[in-house]
Structure prediction request, 612 residues.
Amino acid sequence: MTLKIGVPSKGRLMEKTFEWFGARGVEMRRDGAEREYSATVDGADGVQVVLLSAGEIPQELSAGRIHLGVTGSDLVREKLADWEEQVADLAPLGFGFADLIIAVPAFWVDVDTLDDLDAAATAFRAAHGHRLRIATKYHRLVREFLREQGVADYQLVDSQGATEGTVKNLTAEAIADITSTGETLRANHLKILSDGLIHRSEATLFAARAADWTGSAPATLAALAARLDIVLPEPLERLPRPTAAA
Amino acid sequence: MRAADRAEAERLFARFRAAGAVPVDADILLPADTLLDLYGEDIRARAYVTTDPLEGEMMLRPDFTVPVVQMHMAHGAEPARYTYMGEVFRRQDHRGARAREYLQVGYEVFARENPEAADAEVFALFAEVLAPLRLRAATGDIGILLAAIRGLSTSDRRKAALLRHVWRPRRFRALLDRFGGRTPVAEPRARLLSALAQTPVDDLIAAAGPVIGLRESGEVAARASALLQDADTPPLSAAEVDLLEDLLNLRDSAPNALGHLRDVAVDLPSIAPAVDRFARRLDALSARGIDVAMLDFEASHGRTTMEYYDGFVFSFHAEGRAGLPPVASGGRYDALTRVLGQGRSIPAVGGVIRPGLVVALTEGRA
Prediction:
C-alpha cells in the first residue's frame, strides 16, 4: 500500500514544500502541464504525492484519506476539533510563517491590550445597542482565545477575504486575521493589540491518526522519517486513534 | 435516548406537576440572537447553531430557562410554577463521554413574595425527589458576592467592571490585582497616560490615524478621559481585597458559613442584607425538613457556570464521582427576567434534573 502525502497544490507553499523535501533527498515535482494537479516523487519508495488545496488538507487528514499532509498549523487548529487527537505534529518546516492577531483602528488611542478591548466593547455595546464586531475566518481560534482571556461583549462576523477592509466598510469594528509583515494592516489604518497574538502559524508536516496504518505503511513512514531526519514523536502503533468509534 | 431515561423523566415530570407546577413546552429550534445577546459568543462553543433560510441563525435548545422565562414574561400570571420535560443539546468540541443530547426535567417558580421561601421550596423538592440516590448537595449565593463588590470603597466604574466579570474568574482576578495596586500599570497604559497629560486627546487621536468604523472619535476620547480619572483613583485597600478574597474562598457548612459572613459584614456592611437573606433561607430550609447543619456552602459556587444566576445557587452531585456532571442544578435568576422582560421583571428561582443520570446511578452504571 502506498503512503499518501497531501501537499499544497499551488503557489509558494507548494514550491517551498518541494524545496524542503528536495533538500532532504526526496524529489517532488509536478507532472505535465502547468495546470495538471498531479505530481511524482523520487527518493522515497511507496510514497505518493497528492496535490490538494492547503485549506482542505486538515479535513483530508482528519478523514484519514491521506497519511501525511503539509499545511499551516493555523488551519489545522482552526478546522479540527481536538486537533491533537486527530493528527500528530511531525515537523515544523520553517516557512509559511504568519501570525494570527487581533487588530483595531490605529486611532483608538485608548485601546492597546485585550483588557482595553473588553472595556471598549462594553461601552460600545451600551452606545450602539449591539456587541462589538470582530471580523475573521478563524472562528474557533479567536473564540477560544477570547474566552480564555475573559473578553466579553464581542461578536464574531465571518469574513473570508479582504478582512482588513471590514472596519472601513462598517461591517466590523475590529479584525482577527493572519499577517506576516503588518503591511496590509498599516495600509488599512489598523494596529495590532500588544497582547493580541493568538497563534504563530508555520507550515507543518502532520500525520493522520485515522489513516490506514496497517500493512507496509508503518515501515514506509519509518523509512521516510529517517530520510527526512525527523524523529517520530511517538511509537508508530500509537498513531492510529485509540478506538475507531470514539 | 433510552426508554428508561424517558420513563424516569415522565416520573419526575408527574412529581413536579403534583407539586403544583403547570406543564409548559418550548420550541427545540430557538432564535440564536436572544441566546447570543445573553451569553455572548461563548454559547456557540456549547450549542448547535443552524441556519433557517428566512429566520436566520437558530440554535438547538441548549436549556429551557430562556424560552420559559420569555413565555412567562409575555403572558404569565403571577405567581406561577412551571414544569417542563424534554431534550437539550450541547455541542461537544472535545472527545469524551459528555452527552450531546439529554433529557432535562425542570421546575421554576416566579413569585414576588418571600423569595427565600421559594428558594427553599425548589431545593427541598429536589432534595426529596433525589433522596434515594444519596447525593451530596452544594449551595452558594452569588448575591452575597455581588453585594460585597457593590460595597467596595472605589469608583462605580471599577465596581461595574468587577460585577461584569464575576463569572470569568481569570479576568476578575486580573482586575482585582490591578485595582488593588498589586500589578504595576502596564507600559502601554503608562505611555498613554503621560501622553494624555501633555497633549489634548483630540490631537492624539488625529495623529494616530484617520477615523474609520462605527466607533467614533468621541467614544475614544470619552474612554481616554475615563482612563485618566481611573489613574487618579486610589487603589482598593489591602483590607478590602483580603475581605473579598476571604469571601471568594469561603467553604464551610451552612451554619458555620453564616457565622463567618456575619463577622465579615461588620467590616463590609454592604453584604448585611444579603447575609440576612441567607439566614432567612436557612430557616426556610429547616422548616421544610432540610438538615442545614449538613449542607455545604461555597461562596464561589456557580461562578463558572451560566452567568444568569444572581442569588441562591445549588447542585446535587454523586459523591466521589468528580467526572460526572451534576445530577441536578439550579438557582435564582431575578436579573434574567429583567433582561428578557423588556422593562418588567419578577423574582424567579428554579432548577433542572437530568433523568438519564438518575437512571444511570440507580442502575449502578454511571
